[in-house]
Amino acid sequence: MNTPRELVGLRSLDQELRGVLFLPQASQPTPVVILCHGAGEFKENYFDLAERLAESGIASFAFDFHGHGESAGHRFHVKMAEWVPDVQSAIGFLSQHPKIDSQRIGAFGLSSGGTAILETAALDSRLKALVVLDGTVRNSLPLPLTLFMKLLIALGQVKKFFTGKDLLLPLAKLSGGIHLCSDPEVDARIQADPRAQAAFGAFPFPGGAEAFFVDTIERVPAINAPTLVIWGEEDELDPTETARMLHAALTCKKKLEIVAGNGHAGHLDRHRDKVFALTREWVLQNLGKAQPAPDAGAGRQHGIQDNRGADSAATGIPREVGVALAAS
User: Fold this and answer.
1) Which CATH number does the domain housing residue 262 bear?
2) Is 196 contained in some domain?
3) Residue 173: inside a domain, yes or no?
4) pTM of the prediction?
5) Residues of 30-60 as b/e, b for ≥16 C-beta within 10 angstroms?
6) How many domains does the chain divide into?
7) Strand pairing of 167-169 and 203-205?
8) Which of 9-13, 84-88, 297-301 has the least mean pLDDT?
9) Phi, psi angles (nearest 5°) of residue 172
């Protein structure tokens, strides 16, 4: 399927983020899912999921968080004080889009992207459904690795104090060969991707500390949006115990799915179709779908519209500015 796309530039914390909006043809405004990548990742890893959702009449907005992909910001920093406003900026943009139903906005997030959508939903009721894939909600590292990572963070803080710069370290080597996917071919392809090598070959400390150390699980009881928790049974970064703890902590409508044979990056792994199907079913159940357009495709090209840098007079869509997350 070749879903029509719009290239989008939007503002968050006075910096530009880049994204792609996938718009299925429909006769009325459609529900939409914001697709949120993990630490060191990028929006393109979610295009296949976006296409799958479009087949069911669901729009998707895949974007790069601060410091990742094509977006501005300190490279590969993972800070919820930036990522939550990024999600809110995406919500604001989509709420004003003429082809999107502003009352049916959901979000999907992997790992730290899962952290971001949970933190956002805990304080922003505009998100109406969530899918969390192996989300980072607590420190689940073994004690020796926890102490090692804390040491790296401390060293990074010292360097930043004296130089203003992060300590950049080859996290892929220091992690001892942890696999993101259980499928060895998929895992090797991820590790060989130059974009992944750039991130994990020079990972920033302390800038990337929140990829590992968060306490999001303490705030998830405030979430009202129906939440699906999907977890890879073979996740080497975060055990299924975390999935069960997260599911237990949620007080909203919720569901837990453990996918056998998948690792941490289930949207890319051997059973990604299962992840896609579960996501689709949850979104349809909780957001619904738009009515298809009559004579869909007739006289219309399935191309890419570039709205990056366009002003509101040209597109009718204001460029949104994200709301800063209040310090607690």
Assistant:
1) 3.40.50.1820
2) no
3) no
4) 0.89
5) bbbbbbbbbbbbbbebbbebbbbbbeebbbb
6) 1
7) antiparallel
8) 297-301
9) -60, -40
Question: What's the alpha-carbon Rg for the chain, to the nearest Å?
Answer: 19
Alpha-carbon distances of 240 from 58, 133, 243, 247, rounded to whole Å: 29, 11, 5, 11
Q: How far apart are CA 143 and CA 131, in angstroms?
A: 29
Task: Report yes or no: 139 and 148 within 8 Å, Cβ to Cβ.
Answer: no
Cα–Cα dist 178/192, whole Å: 14
Low-confidence winner among 13-17, 140-144, 164-168 (lowest mean pLDDT): 140-144
DSSP state of 28: S
Yes or no: say if 21 and 5 are a contact pair by the CB < 8 Å rule: yes
Tell me the pairing of strands 127-133 and 227-232. parallel
200 found inside a domain: no
- Residue 17: strand pairing partners: 10
What is the number of other CB atoms lying within 10 angstroms of the CB of residue 255?
16
The DSSP code for 265 is: -
Dihedral in degrees, nearest 10, Cα atoms 32, 38, 43, 45 = -100
- Residue 163: CB atoms within 10 Å: 9
- For residue 159, how many other CB atoms are within 10 A of its CB? 16
How far is the CA of 20 from the CAs of 6, 38, 223, 262, 271, in angstroms? 6, 17, 27, 27, 25
Which residues form the domain of 121? Answer: 5-140+213-287
Residues of the chain with pLDDT > 90, as a percent, come to 81
Task: Average the pLDDT over 245-255 and give the result.
Answer: 98
Tokens linked to 122: 């805990």
Give the sheet arrangement for strand 227-232, strand by strand.
Answer: 254-259, 227-232, 127-133, 100-110, 30-36, 59-63, 15-22, 5-12, 304-306
Question: Is 83 within a domain?
Answer: yes
Give φ, ψ of 270 to 5 degrees.
-60, -30
